[in-house]
Predict the structure.
Amino acid sequence: MMIRGATTDDLESLVSLNEEVQRLHVRIEPTLFRSDFDAVEIAAFFEGVLSDPNSIVLLTEQGSMLGYIWTEHQRRLATPFSPKRERIYLHHISIAEAARRKGVGSALLKAAEREAAQVGVSRIVLEAWASNHSAVEFFTEAGYSAFNLVMARNL
């Protein structure tokens, strides 16, 4: 299994892998996510992400594309309430259904952690939907833990 940085040549694979993530998000929170998946729009979005020097998209492949992870290096200025800080924010991780539970996600997560260490960042932050039990379990097993609880009430 090879892990490498994504390029614009990979847009079709990114769009395809992203469709699974998007459909999952629509099932979990249909009012927050668009169900009208537009491959051209998603490709244009990822093209912008790939040109952003703060974003890193890593792909893993073994003959065909198995998955991707998209992270962003975020820098926050000091405020009267908190010190200046940097973090890597994990936006997406998507693994092709046939490649799940085979170490692909763990390999991508470890690669993202190495990328963070290379730029001197010691914290990776992510969000997982509480009802996405497999994602919560995956990240917990990888050593991640909850530190902030976001709550909502529909009115």
